Amino acid sequence: TTPDSNAPSPRGRKGSISDDSIQNICLLISRTEIPRLVIQFVRESPHPSVKWTKDSLEDICLGIICNIARFSTRESLLRAGAAECLEKLETLPGIHGYRARAVLVSLGALPKQF
Fold first, then answer.
1. Fewer beta carbons within 10 angstroms: which end of the chain, N or C?
2. Is the pTM of this model over 0.70?
């Protein structure tokens, strides 16, 4: 029999990436200028943070920051000024404020019970 292309893959849903792969990618990224650049873009975004939308460049950058904080050493984010940048976002309602708070907790800049 031929495998069903719509069947879930053994590692999760079709097209998803394993946590191990994400961790390896984040470790590689953390050794480049990318953490500094995504923090800089979030900090200097020409759009007000309350108007960021799903899949906007700011949203994608914040997702990259979250993944680096979760799967990699946090030094690259600290060197890039993530704590100072994200403190401005932590009070936002919705996903962007939640992500900012989660990263700040990961960096040790907020208590775990935010």
1. N
2. yes
